[in-house]
Amino acid sequence: MALEASSTSPHSPHHLSLAHQTLHNLEHQHHWSSLTLHTHSPSSPHVPLSRPLLSGLPPKRLYTHPDEQIALLKEAARRKATGKPSEGDPPPQREWVVPTHLREKWTVRELVEVFGDMSVVPPEPAASGENKDGVVESEQQQDKWRTTKRALLGIVEDDSTVVYYLVHDGVVKPRQN
């Protein structure tokens, strides 16, 4: 888990506390790995983010694009017809997490500001092979389906319960049932 020094953070102690509580929950309750607390923009280290953000790798994929879902089903049917074993679930992807409190009132403007701070895919912690935007080349090529920004809102209650909601930037095609 990579943490930036909170003494140099431009954020309030309240927001940092929410971030640390959410990070702890993701690591110990949900078994995420490669967790990173971001207080400054990954692409411009001197630019503070509007609020602290987390990024990390969940143990399994949280979201599958509807078009990717169709492609995976077709591939599974093709493999079954040819007698080849199934490849299993798609690999997990790094995700953004926005720590927030249950009593916070979000506006569309605030969500737009947070999404403006993010890249489509969170940067790998101390990754090698990054391009000029701080995005790992292999990750860019590996997921042609991830074209819009998304984040989990990590909503913390006073009793330390954390609930997560997936939020997309813009309109997203509905999933197939």
Q: Average pLDDT value?
A: 83
Tell me the Rg in angstroms: 18 Å
Query: Mind telling me the CATH class?
Result: Alpha Beta
Based on Cα principal axes, name the global outline: elongated
| Order of strands across the main sheet | 1-2-3-4-5
> What is the CATH T-level topology?
Trna Endonuclease, Chain: A, domain 1
What number of structural domains do the residues give? 1
From N to C, what is the helix and strand string? HEEHEHHEE
Helix fraction? 25-40%
Number of beta strands: 5
Give the biggest beta sheet: 5 strands, mixed
Beta-strand share of residues: 15-25%
Cα(first) to Cα(last) distance is 36 Å
Q: How many helix segments? A: 4
Poorly predicted runs of 5 or more residues: 128-141
Q: Report the oligomer.
A: single chain
Please tell me the CATH architecture by its name. 3-Layer(aba) Sandwich
**What structural class should be given to the helix and strand makeup?**
alpha+beta
Write the layout of secondary structure elements.
Blueprint: H1 13-28, E1 33-40, E2 48-57, H2 66-82, E3 95-101, H3 108-117, H4 137-142, E4 150-156, E5 162-168
Keywords: Endonuclease, Hydrolase, Nuclease, tRNA processing
Pfam families: Sen15 (PF09631)
Organism: Phyllosticta capitalensis
Task: Provide a compact summary of the structure.
Keywords: Endonuclease, Hydrolase, Nuclease, tRNA processing. The protein is α+β, with helices and mostly antiparallel strands.
List keywords for this structure.
single chain; 177 residues; alpha+beta; 5-stranded mixed sheet; 4 helices; 5 strands; 28% helix; hydrolase; tRNA_endonuc-like_dom_sf; tRNA_intron_Endo_cat-like_sf
